[in-house]
C-alpha cells in the first residue's frame, strides 16, 4: 500500500468511528494543524509549459540605499514598459524619487501612462512591499497621456514628485507606460526643493552598490500555463515559482555596461494558468520556501454559469509577513470546484523571497490528512 492509500485508509476508519468533527466530516482547510500536515505530505510537481515573457522591465534597486540625490538607473526603451523602483533615502536631505522620460526625437511624442502606484514611504520594508502590491491589484488607474517635447523631458507619474522621503525611509513604486517610439526612461532621486527637470540635466549618475540589482529586462509579464489539466486523482501537487524550473530574468545594466540578473524576478507579473478536470473540491495553498514573504495575489475563475470570481488575497492576511526561517509555513488561499480553470496573478515585491509554491490539494486527500492530524492531536 502506498503512502497516499494508507492516509486514505486511516481517514476512512476514523470517519467510520466518528472521530472526525462535524456531521459530514467537514474539514477546515485553514486549520494550522491540517496545513502543517499538508506541507509535509508527499506531492508531485505540476508540469508547466515554457514561459512566455513579454514587455520590457526597468528595475531600479541599486544603489538600494543612495546617500545623495542623482540618477539611479535609466535606459532607452520603447513599447510596453514597466518601471519598478525600490530605494531607501540615506542622504541627509528630504528627497523625491521620480520617473522621467527624455524624447530624443525631433517631434513631440505622447507617452501613454497606464498606471502609477506607490506605497507610502516607511522604514518597514515588508509593509512597503505588501502595500505596493495591494495598490497594484486593487488600483483602478485612469489611462492618460504625457506629451514629451522634442529633445525634452517629462515626468511619468507626476504624483511621485509630491511624495517626500525622509532619511531612513524606503520608497517603492510601479509605473506602467506605453512608448510609441524609443525614449530614455530614468529613475531619479531629487532633492525635494528642486525642480526634477532642471535637476536631471545636471547628469549626476549614481554608481551601483555591491548587490547591483538593477537593469533592463525583456519580460515584465510572464505567462506560464500548466502542461496538462490537473485532476483530483493526481493527488496533492504544486507549482513552484523560482528555482530550477523558473528562470530569473537576465538583462543588461547599461549604466555599468554589464549583464544583470533579476534575482527574485522583482517587478515581474506572473500570470499562471491552471486547468482542472474531474469532480470534487480543490484547496489552494501558498507556501514560501525562500524566506520571508509579504505581498498580494489575485485569483480568478468561473464558477459554473456565474460571472467570473475575482479575489485579492494578502500573503499573509493577518500578519506582516510569512515564512521567516520556516520553509513549512503555509497559508490557505481559496477553494474551488474541479473542472474550473484558475488564473493566478502575482508580482514578487521588493524584499520578498523566492522560491514559493502554490499547492493544490483534493478534498478527499485533505480529509485523509486531517484525520492524521486529528489522531496526532
TrEMBL record:
This protein's UniProt keywords: Signal
- According to the UniProt entry, where is the signal peptide? 1-26
Q: How is this protein named in the record?
A: Copper amine oxidase
Amino acid at each position: 500500500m502506498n503512502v497516499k492509500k494508507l492516509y486514505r485508509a486511516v481517514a476512512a476508519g476514523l470517519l467510520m468511528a466518528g472521530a472526525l468533527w462535524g456531521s459530514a466530516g467537514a474539514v477546515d482547510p485553514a486549520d494550522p494543524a491540517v496545513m502543517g500536515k499538508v506541507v509535509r505530505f508527499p506531492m508531485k510537481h505540476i508540469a508547466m509549459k515554457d514561459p512566455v515573457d513579454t514587455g520590457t522591465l526597468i528595475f531600479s534597486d541599486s544603489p538600494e540605499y543612495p546617500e545623495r540625490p542623482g540618477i539611479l538607473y535609466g535606459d532607452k526603451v520603447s513599447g510596453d514598459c514597466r518601471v519598478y523602483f525600490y530605494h531607501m533615502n540615506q542622504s541627509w536631505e528630504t528627497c523625491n524619487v521620480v520617473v522621467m522620460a527624455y524624447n530624443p526625437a525631433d517631434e513631440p511624442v505622447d507617452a501613454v501612462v497606464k498606471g502609477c502606484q506607490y506605497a507610502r514611504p516607511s522604514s518597514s520594508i515588508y509593509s512597503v512591499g505588501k502595500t505596493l502590491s495591494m495598490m497594484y491589484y486593487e488600483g483602478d488607474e485612469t489611462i492618460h497621456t504625457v506629451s514629451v517635447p522634442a529633445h525634452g523631458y517629462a515626468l511619468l507619474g507626476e504624483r511621485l514628485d509630491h511624495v517626500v522621503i525622509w532619511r531612513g525611509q524606503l520608497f517603492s513604486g510601479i509605473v506602467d507606460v506605453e512608448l510609441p517610439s524609443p525614449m530614455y526612461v530614468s529613475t531619479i532621486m531629487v532633492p525635494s526643493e528642486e525642480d526634477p527637470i532642471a535637476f536631471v540635466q545636471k547628469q549626476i549618475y549614481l554608481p551601483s552598490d555591491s548587490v547591483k540589482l538593477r537593469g533592463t529586462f525583456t519580460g515584465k509579464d510572464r505567462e506560464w500555463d500548466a502542461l496538462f489539466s490537473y485532476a483530483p486523482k493526481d493527488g496533492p501537487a504544486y507549482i513552484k515559482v523560482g528555482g530550477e524550473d523558473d528562470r530569473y530574468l537576465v538583462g543588461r545594466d547599461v549604466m555599468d555596461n554589464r549583464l544583470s540578473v533579476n534575482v527574485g524576478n522583482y517587478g515581474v507579473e506572473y500570470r499562471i494558468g491552471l486547468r482542472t478536470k474531474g469532480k470534487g473540491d480543490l484547496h489552494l495553498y501558498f507556501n514560501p520556501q525562500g524566506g520571508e514573504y509579504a505581498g498580494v495575489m489575485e485569483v480568478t475563475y468561473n464558477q459554473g454559469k456565474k460571472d467570473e470570481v475575482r479575489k485579492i488575497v494578502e500573503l499573509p492576511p493577518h500578519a506582516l509577513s510569512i515564512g521567516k526561517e520556516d520553509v513549512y509555513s503555509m497559508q490557505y488561499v481559496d477553494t474551488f470546484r474541479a473542472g474550473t480553470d484558475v488564473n493566478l496573478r502575482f508580482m514578487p515585491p521588493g524584499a520578498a523571497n523566492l522560491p514559493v509554491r502554490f499547492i493544490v490539494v483534493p478534498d478527499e486527500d485533505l480529509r485523509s490528512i486531517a484525520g492524521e492530524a486529528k489522531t496526532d492531536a
